[in-house]
Fold:
Amino acid sequence: MTEKTKKALKLPEAGQWPDRITPTVLVAGAVLSTIGFLLAFLWASPVNGAAVNGVEMIGGQMVTSVLLLSQKIFYFHMPVAITSFIALAFAGYYAVRFLMTKNRRFDTCSKIAMEIALLFVACTMITGDLWTRFEWGVWWTWDPRLTTYLILMLIIIAYFILRNAIDEPERRATYGAVLSIIALIDVPICFMVTRLIPSSIHPVVVREGGMSADMGITLMFCLVGIMLIGFALYRFRFRQVRLTERVEALKEQLED
Structure:
């Protein structure tokens, strides 16, 4: 039996308690998110500070304030952005663990977390572009928050391109871990840029007067729901990868 086979066979068995509760977590996340979105459309107030007052020049175009659905997009946009940051935090954590131990299981955990992060980063960019179109009248402007988040998405895409370009497993995992850590470093920059650069036109809801009770309750339903969905997707994907590796290991064992 090869060393790779031994390591693969040491992976935890399917059916651990996180796997057993994952379907329940997914359903709970879907229910909470649905309740949150219903509250957003039927109950919650518009987001404070989200609208442009009067007519302003943004991105070289004359823009008037049209709320339409923009204040409702916020209740999906912010939770998916926060969930993407959490996924990147786990990816960076497991990347550091891999670099310290060279345990391939940590590389697998980091890679799956990066996959989940890419999904939620894409959702954040799409909803952000929709919000930008409704609020500012343009699909894109080089606002500091938008620019730093675009850089974050490009780093994540580069991570997967790099992994697919390297055949040697140890080197692939090492380079991937480094990029995971770089992506994690960009997270606090994305979060703090609108607070550090006053010229940013991206709204900071909490700083600009906070949220009313109905907004806060609605946001919490959406946030908890989206985070639970993210956790469930991670566990489903982790179980799939783990079972695939076990099947490959058993095939190698039979061939030996």
Q: What stands out?
A: The beta strands are 55-58, 61-64. Residues 4-9, 48-52, 61-68 have pLDDT under 50 and may be disordered.
